[in-house]
Amino acid sequence: MPPLSLPSRPWVPAPAAAARPLARWLAISALSVCISLSAKAAPAIINATGVQQTIRGFGGATAFRPETPLTATDLDTLYGQAPGQIGLTLLRIRLAPDSQWRALELANAQGARARGAAIVASPWSPPAAMKTNNALVGGSLKPSAYADYATYLNDFARYMADHGAPLYAISIQNEPDITVDYESCDWTAEQVRTFCRDHARAITAARIIAPESFQFRHGMSDPLLNDPAAAENVDIIGGHIYGGGLAPYPLAVSCGKEVWMTEHLELTTDWAGALLTGREIHDCLTTGGFSAYLWWYVTRYYGPLGEDGVVTKRGHVMAQYARFIRPGYVRVDATNEPTTGVRVSAFKREKLVIVAVNQAKSAVTQAFTLNGANVARVTPWVTSATLDCAAEPAVSVNAGAFSATLPGESVTTFVGDIAFPAPTITSAPRSHRVPEHTLAVMDVVVAADFPTFQWYHDGALVPGATNRTLELPDVRAADAGSYEVNVTTNGGSVRSAAATLTVGPAGGVSRLVNLSTRAHAGQGDRTLIAGFVVDGVGARLLLRGVGPGLASTFGLSQTLVDPLLDLRAGDGSPLAANDNWPAALEPAWKAVSAFPLVAGSLDAALVRTMTTELNTVLISGRDGGIGTALVEVYEMERNPRAILFNLSSRAYVSDAEGPLIAGFVIDGPAAKTVLVRAAGPALRKSLRVPGALARPVMELHGAADTGFLVTTRNWDPSLAAHFARLSAFAWSDASEDTALLVTLDPGCYTAVVRGESGAAGLALVEVYNAR
Question: Which residues are catalytically annotated?
C-alpha cells in the first residue's frame, strides 16, 4: 500500500473527532465550585488488607505518529522515574501492515523496553487480502482467513521478540464496533467469540487482548466470556471509554481476566482538563477496577509529553500515578469520597501509595486512617496549576493516622515505606564441591517481605551480586572459598553463615541417572505423559510404568490397576510398548537400585538402547482404568557418549487426584546444577494446552539427610537466558509459572507441584541437566 498520509494537528487517526463524542466524566464547571469545608470532615480509611486488582501500569501509544522514532531524551522522560519524568510502564504500538511503519514501531518499542516498559500491540486492520472488501478501511475479516490472521498476529509477536522487544500482549482488533473512515475492520461479538474459540490458540508468542470496544461495550465481550473454550484463549479484556464504558466488569473478573483501559484522550490542554484526567484515572482504577490505563499519543500537544519535549500538565498528573504505582502493586480498599470533591485511592507493595484528587477550588484538610500497614511517615507529591509533581515535606503518621492539606484543584500522592519484620534465613547457602569449568549456583532461602541481597566472597563484596542466587557460570580455582549473603528489609538485616565452595579438576562431572514422575494417570488429555531427552546415542535405559507396585511396596491407595507403557519418539512414531513386565527383567531392579516389583504384578517395564534424542512415555490404564501411577527412567550403564539430559512430565493436578511429583537422582563425585520448572500458564500460553493449572507452586525436597529445601511460586526473569541455552520452551514475561536453578550434591531429590490454594489443572514439571 502507499505510505499513510498524516494530516496536521489536530487530526488524529483514532478516534476521529467527528466519529464519536469526546466524553468528560465531570462537567468542567464542577471544578469551579467553591466548597466550604468542615474541620470535622470524615477521614479517609485505608484498609491495606482489602486487596483488589493488580496494577500492570500506565502508558500511551505511538500508533501512526510520531513519524520518526522517539528520541532517547523523550523515552527517558516518558519512562524514567526521576523528578521531572513521567514514569510510564506501558507502550501501545500499531501492528502495521507495511515494513516502514513496523520498523518505526519496533524502534519505539525497543527504546521503551530498554527502560523497563511492557509493550502491547493493536492492529487497526488485518491485511487487505484477508478482508471482505480487499481494503484496509472498513470491511470484515473473511471467515476463511481466520486461521491465517491468527498466524499473522503470532508472526508479528515473534518478529518483535526476535528483535529485542517482546510483546506483553497483542490485541486481535482495535475498536471493532465503530464505523470510521480510517484504517479499521468491523467485527460482531459473535465473530470475536468464534475467532477466539477456534483460532486464538495459535497465538502463542504473547498474551491476547480482546475485544477493545471503542466504548467498552460489555456486549462485545460477554459472548466470549460465557464460552469457556473462547475465554480460555483470552488473557485480557480491553476496551476504550469514548462516551461511556467506565464501569465494573464482574463477569470478566469472575472468569479470571484482567480488565484494561487501552485508549482514551481529551483534546484540552488547560489545567482544568488535566485535572479531569486525574479524576478519570481514579475512576478507571476504582470504579472500573482496571489493571492498566493507557492514554492515546504519548507525545502530542494534548498528551503527557508535548512535541517540544516538555512534560505537559496532563503528563504531570499521570506521573502522580505512574511514578509511584509500579507494575505489581495492588489496589487496596480506601474511602472513595471522604469529603465532597475529594477522591481517594490507595495501593501497596513495599510502599503504601495514596492518591487524593481534590476537585474543589478550595484547599481541603483531609485526615487519613491507615489500617493493616505500619507506616511511620509519608511524603506528599503535588501537581496543581502552579506545581508539577513537586515533593513536599514529609508528614508523620501517629497511631496509624495523619492529616494533610490538599491544595485546591490538585492531585496529591502520598508515598510511605511499609515497615516489615527483619528477614529470617530459613535455608542458608550450602557448601559444595564442583568441577572446574562447570556452572555453580549459591542460593539462600528467606522468610521476608521485599528483601534485598548482597553476596560476599571470602569477606569481600561481590559487585552486582544482588539476587537470591549467585551464579558462577564457569567455575575457576579463584572462585573457591567461603560465600555469605546479607539479606535486608526495611525492618533489619541478617547475615548468613558461610558456605564453602571447593573447586575440583575438570572432568569429574556428575550426571542424572534416574528420572521419575508420580501423578494421576487418566485417559485422553489426562494421560500421564513423560518426555525425556538423551544427549548422544546408545544410552541403555530401563523404563517402568508402576501402579500395583505403588500399592504393594508403599501402601498407596487408588493406584492404576494395570498400567500400559507406550514409548514413542519425539515425532510420535512408536518405539516400544509393554503391558505386563517380563520376569527376565527382575535382575535389572537390583542393577539400578530400583525398588522391586512383585512377581507377576501387572506393572509395565522394558529395557531399550536409545537411538533417538527426543522421547515420550505415555502411561494409561488398560480398559479405561485410572489411578495414581509412577513412570521411571533409569540409566542401565554409565555411557560417556550418551547422558540423560532432561525429563518433563505432564499430568492433571488437584486436591482429589493429588500433586505431580518428579524425582531425580544425581550420581557422581561432585555437585551438579539443575534447572527445575513447573509450568501451568506457560502450557496454555506457549503450547496452547487447554485446562492448564493457573498458578503452580513447587516444593523441592532432598533425601532424609537434606530434607525440605525450598518452596517457590514464581521465577526470576534472569532464568530466561538459561531456558534458551537449554532449549527449554520460552515463557512469557511475568508469567505465573515457577522455576529454580539450583546446585545439588549427589543424592535423591523430589519436586512436588500443586495448585495454589487448591487450584486444579494440567501441569508440566521439567528437570534439566544445566551442565
Answer: 175, 263
Q: Tell me: the pLDDT tens digits for 173-201?
A: 999 999 999 999 999 999 999 999 999 99
Q: Is the pLDDT of residue 734 over 70?
A: yes
Residue in the block written with cell 518452596: 711
Question: Cα(108)–Cα(662) distance, rounded to whole angstroms?
Answer: 43
The CATH class of 56-327 is alpha beta
Are domains 35-55+329-419 and 424-504 of this chain identical in fold? yes
Q: What pLDDT score does 684 carry?
A: 86
Q: Is the pLDDT of residue 37 over 60?
A: no
CA 697 to chain centre: 14
- Domain residue ranges in the chain: 35-55+329-419, 56-327, 424-504, 511-769
Q: Which residues pair with 330 in a beta bridge?
A: 54, 348
Long-range contacts (CB closer than 8 Å, 24 or more residues apart) made by 27-34: 28/272, 28/273, 28/276, 30/359, 31/272, 31/275, 31/276, 31/359, 31/361, 31/409, 32/361, 33/341, 33/360, 33/361, 34/360, 34/361, 34/362
Q: Label residue 10 by pLDDT band (50, 70, 90).
A: very low
Give the H or E element holding residue 686: helix 681-686
Domain covering 424-504, topology: Immunoglobulin-like (2.60.40)
CATH code assigned to 35-55+329-419: 2.60.40.1180
Q: What is the C-alpha separation between 771 and 721, in angstroms, rounded?
A: 14
**Band of pLDDT at residue 27, cut at 50, 70 and 90:** very low
Q: Which helix (H) or strand (E) covers residue 197, if one does?
A: helix 189-198
